């Protein structure tokens, strides 16, 4: 039939092809991602039948919640509480996994986006997309659009600053390898060499001990620092949004076919309002910081 020259027959073939190519309803469980290629049994996983998710330890609020457990300090990713834990389980459900089919894998922050084979299906740990990182790992679409901010001890000289330029004379700190540290170097360009720390916990402790004047972190984390970790501290302000916007993405081993299915699931969670609901529930307090001009 493909070789038939008659125009009418050709049109019939096209029509039949279009009909055969129409999307069928998914046979996967209710609420899961549609499409046979994204059916649970078709996914290529680190452990068959299990969804293995990476994150750092300690896992901190507001990204993770609940009491420490399963070997995790501060918060337990298995709890389903906190924005990232809740998003992870919502994605798992879309992909057809029950709560008990999800396994969490301790993954240091820098290891998540380092080159090489991964022990997780995806990592969710406030990792911002950058072109350099995307050369060695794959990223999902955004699950959270982020603003950077600076936290200071109240009553100190830096606490009176209202502009980005006003931060230049001060010693600032951030976790090594983060976009927070990159922002210090590229936007603030302080006169004093910024301090870097292997973990955000170390950077927070330095602020608490007044070893640094200001700590640069994402805005939701900043509000947790001021509310829980560093008494008499405040969010000095947030930095103006950059063209294209900074966002957090799930991290995958380079070439992982799971990215497509996870992006479909994220699209569903965005369109049905789930991401907004989880943002309102877990990150609603992380608003209201003035913008540093």
Explain the overall architecture.
The protein has about 290 residues and is α/β, with parallel strands linked by helices. It has 2 domains: about 35-145 and about 245-285, D-Maltodextrin-Binding Protein, domain 2; about 150-240, D-Maltodextrin-Binding Protein, domain 2 (3-Layer(aba) Sandwich). It contains 8 helices and 10 strands. The longest helix is centred in the N-terminal third of the chain and has 14 residues, at about 5-20. The N and C termini lie far apart (about 65 Å). Residues about 1-35 have low confidence and may be disordered.
Q: What's the quick description here?
A:
With 293 residues, this protein is α/β, with parallel strands linked by helices. The protein is built from 8 helices and 10 strands.
List the strand order in the largest sheet: 7-6-8-5-9
**CATH hierarchy, class of the largest domain:** Alpha Beta
Q: Uncertain regions: pLDDT < 50 for 5+ in a row?
A: 1-35
Q: In whole angstroms, how far apart are the ends?
A: 67 Å
- Count structural domains: 2
Say what the CATH topology of the largest domain is.
Answer: D-Maltodextrin-Binding Protein, domain 2
Tell me the major beta sheet: 5 strands, mixed
The count of strands amounts to 10
From the spread of the alpha carbons, the general shape counts as elongated
Order of helices and strands: HEHEHEEEEHEHEHEEHH
Secondary structure category: alpha/beta
Portion of residues within helices: 25-40%
CATH architecture of the largest domain: 3-Layer(aba) Sandwich
Count, helices: 8
Mean pLDDT: 88
Radius of gyration: 23 Å
CATH homologous superfamily label of the largest domain: Periplasmic binding protein-like II
Strand content: 15-25%
């Amino acid at each position: 039939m493909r070789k038939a020259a008659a125009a009418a027959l050709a049109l019939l073939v096209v029509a039949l092809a279009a009909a055969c190519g129409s999307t069928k309803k998914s046979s996967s469980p209710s609420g899961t991602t549609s499409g046979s290629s994204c059916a649970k049994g078709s996914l290529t996983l680190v452990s068959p039948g299990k969804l293995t998710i990476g994150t750092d330890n300690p896992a901190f609020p507001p990204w993770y919640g609940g009491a420490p457990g399963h070997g995790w300090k501060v918060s337990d990713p298995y709890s389903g509480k906190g924005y990232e834990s809740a998003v992870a389980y919502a994605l798992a459900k879309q992909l057809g996994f029950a709560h008990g089919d999800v396994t969490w894998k301790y993954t240091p922050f820098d290891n998540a986006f380092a080159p090489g084979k991964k022990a997780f299906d995806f990592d969710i740990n406030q990792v911002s997309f950058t072109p350099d990182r995307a050369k060695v790992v794959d990223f999902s679409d955004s699950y959270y659009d982020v603003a950077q901010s600076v936290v200071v001890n109240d009553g100190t000289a830096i606490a009176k600053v209202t502009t980005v330029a006003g931060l230049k004379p001060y010693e600032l700190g951030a976790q090594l390898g983060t976009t927070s540290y990159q922002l210090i170097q590229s936007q603030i360009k302080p006169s004093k060499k910024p301090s870097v720390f292997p973990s955000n916990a170390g950077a927070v402790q330095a602020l608490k001990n007044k070893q640094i004047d200001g700590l640069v972190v994402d805005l939701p984390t900043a509000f947790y620092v001021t509310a829980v970790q560093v008494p008499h501290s405040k969010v000095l302000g947030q930095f103006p949004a950059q063209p294209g916007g900074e966002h957090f993405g799930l991290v995958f081993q380079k070439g992982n076919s799971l990215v497509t299915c996870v992006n479909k699931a994220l699209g569903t969670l965005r369109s049905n309002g789930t991401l907004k609901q989880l943002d309102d529930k877990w990150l609603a307090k992380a608003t209201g910081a003035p913008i540093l001009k």
